[in-house]
Amino acid sequence: MRFLRQCPSPVTREEATDHRALYARLASRQVVTPSGVPAGVVWSRVSGGRAPGAVRDLQWRCALGRLPVREILHRHGCAASPLCPRGCGAPETVSHAFWDCPFAGEFWTLVRVSLRRVGPGLVLSRDGVVYRRGLGLLPSVTSGVLWDVLGYAKWALWEDRVSVVGKKVNVLTPSHLFYRFRGRVVERIRMDRTVHGRDWVIKRWGVFGGLL
Ligand SMILES: [Zn+2]
Question: Domain Reverse transcriptase zinc-binding: where (predicted)?
């Protein structure tokens, strides 16, 4: 509602029902500037893609820094400790949960190796993973699918982090989590092949179709 009040009329039907569309419009007018977000982040690209809604929503909230990580919860008196639930000893910020944590680092190393076929131009960085910056060096189709794949990877990381908070222990290793993530992407590609056919999959998934 706060964003709706700030948004000049008329508010389109899409903006009234999709917080990402509304936020994109406000950000483009510089009415709202997400704190801590580097300049040059293109919000329509961050929220875009063809991954499931839950994945796209996570991409969006991750870039905005709007996830209930412990550092934020502790600052607002909602968590006893600001430290990472994985036990690494560092404060759990959004950046830490998705990139800086040693667990996340090991996970991304495995993802990076599996994506080497995308091309020598691919450099996975925090900016690329969180804000989709720097992925534009790749052909646009590859960049779009890569963003979806990175969304599945972040989804796996966050889902596991939530599970760790509940169980108070790391159950999965980075390697386990990598295979879970990879399995979901493969499952999605197989489903697309069943529904749309092989040619469609080649066109849509490009080099990622080779994961099958
Ligand atoms: Zn950590």
Answer: 50-108
Range of the domain at 187: 50-211
Residues in the chain: 212
Whole-prediction pTM: 0.79
Distance 87 CA to ligand 1 centre (A): 6
In a domain, 42, yes or no: no
Ligand 1 centroid, distance to 88 Cα (angstroms):
4
Q: How far is the CA of 100 from the centre of ligand 1 (A)?
A: 7
**Per residue of the chain (212 residues), what is the pLDDT tens digit?**
444 454 445 556 665 566 556 555 544 544 444 556 766 666 667 776 778 888 988 998 898 888 999 999 999 999 999 999 999 999 999 999 999 999 999 999 999 888 877 766 677 889 888 888 877 556 656 778 888 899 999 999 999 999 999 887 778 899 999 999 999 999 999 998 999 998 888 888 887 776 65
Quote the CA–CA distance of 191 and 93 in Å, as a whole number. 35
User: How far is Cα 4 from Cα 144, in angstroms, rounded to an integer?
Assistant: 29
91 CA → ligand 1 middle, Å:
7
